[in-house]
Amino acid sequence: MAGGGCTHRSPAALRRRRLQAIQRSDTRIIQSGIDVKFWAQAPPSCSAIRPASCPGCGAASREPGKSLRVVGHGLRGRDIEGPDEPEAEPASRTVLARRYRCLGCGAVLVVVPRGVARALRYTLDAVGYALALWGFAQRTAEQVRRAVSAATARGLSAPSQWSSLRRWAARAERIFGAGTPSASGTLRDRARQVATWLTARAPLPTGQVPRDAFFGGRFVHAR
């Protein structure tokens, strides 16, 4: 130990610390084209969903005649909740997200099923469905919770005040990304506006807002 309380670190240790800092600040979530249900039944292999390029530096995963640049970096369990289809019984399951690391820039890439977002337990289709039921179909918060959540235990809030609905309505742009309608009116008004916007993202619109908002949420990042 040197004077002033400083400790000596080897160049290799310093490189590891820098790499860890980069990984923490530059983890990219990439949605695959596989739905949660099918992913859980048969997790894809490392090579099947390897990103074609690194979104951090733009380098190709493999250039002709060269070794891999984006390599497998293990698995990470993700707890996912929500129904597989509109009006289906909500389910809770754990899926194994595949992690990759770019050997060029050090970015960590996490490939997840379609409809799974960063730091969100519920699928995007479940969130879109919930907002449509609450904001458009005027279901009560407890009715929406029963349609979307597989949890049997309830929180401390009253049945009519499921806080997740208000949180999702308030943070819709952060959840669904650019293009989400600007906030206006009450949170329930906001939920209706977002649900209506999601219906245009459904691959096969039916005119049924809750159903179309469900699939719009699932495919909102696919375009």
Largest beta-sheet details: 4 strands, mixed
What proportion strand?
A: 15-25%
Oligomeric description of these chains: single chain
What is the rounded distance between the termini?
Answer: 55 Å
The dominant shape is elongated
Side by side, the strands of the main sheet go 1-4-3-2
| Overall pLDDT confidence | 87
The structural class is: alpha+beta
Unreliable stretches, pLDDT < 50, 5 or more residues? 1-7, 21-25
Order of helices and strands: HEHEEEHHHHHH
Radius of gyration: 21 Å
Helix content: 25-40%
Number of helices: 8
Would you count the extended β strands for me? Answer: 4
What is the number of domains?
2
Question: Describe it for me?
Answer:
By secondary structure, the chain is of the alpha+beta class. The protein folds into two domains: 20-114, no CATH class; 124-219, no CATH class. The chain has eight helices and four strands, in the order αβαβββαααααα. The chain has helices spanning 11-25, 36-41, 124-136, 141-148, 163-170, 172-176, 187-199, 209-219, and strands spanning 27-35, 70-82, 91-102, 108-114. The protein has a four-stranded mixed sheet. α3 (124-136) runs antiparallel to α8. The N and C termini lie far apart (55 Å).
